[in-house]
């Protein structure tokens, strides 16, 4: 019988399978939230990660979650307090750069599905022992990139990854060719410059291109 953490990984895998790319978003002004979500969804990306790096991030999660078809997660979760605030704001899932027992416990207590970060074989194995079969590989490019993930596939075939960190559209295509990659996370789709200029048309165009990258690996 699946443990609660196994069930959370199952939900994360379901979410990650919806799109080949999860936009990693840093929303600076609450006015950006709704048109940003609308542009990304119009371009074919409905799974969105709003990082908790700005003062309005939690409010942005609340507003973006109201947009039809949006599945909004909270990124850069570091503490139990972050987890509880993200859950209260309406986040459907969480993403963390690494993992601690306190963070994992908080996600379990609140019922927030988590994509926990790992960068080494030992970190991957530790999370796997706790039932996390879906993990974020971060920082991807700085931690060995595609070659590292391909190497993980042999001894750790049960784990599926969402690599994030330093990924470009060109690199994303190569990551998505790996059988243990569910999707990738990328900030190139909606960078700060486009958010500040309100260029929603360009963001929609980038999202449409990203939604067509590679073919999702079969599991």
- The average pLDDT score comes to 94
Percent helix: 40-55%
- Termini separation comes to 20 Å
Shape: globular
> Can you list the strand order of the major beta sheet?
5-4-3-2-1-9
Strand content: 15-25%
Which H/E pattern describes the elements? Answer: HEHEHEHEHEEHEHEHEHH
Say what oligomer this is: single chain
Task: Give the strand tally.
Answer: 9
Uncertain stretches: 1-5
Question: Sheet bearing the most strands, described?
Answer: 6 strands, parallel
Overall SS class: alpha/beta
Characterise the protein shown here:
With 219 residues, the chain is an alpha/beta fold. 43% of the residues lie in helices and 15% in strands. The protein is built from ten helices and nine strands. Strands 5-4-3-2-1-9 form a six-stranded parallel sheet, with helices on both faces. Strands 6-7-8 form a three-stranded parallel sheet. Helix 4 links the parallel strand 3 and strand 4. It is globular and about 45 Å long. The N terminus is likely disordered.
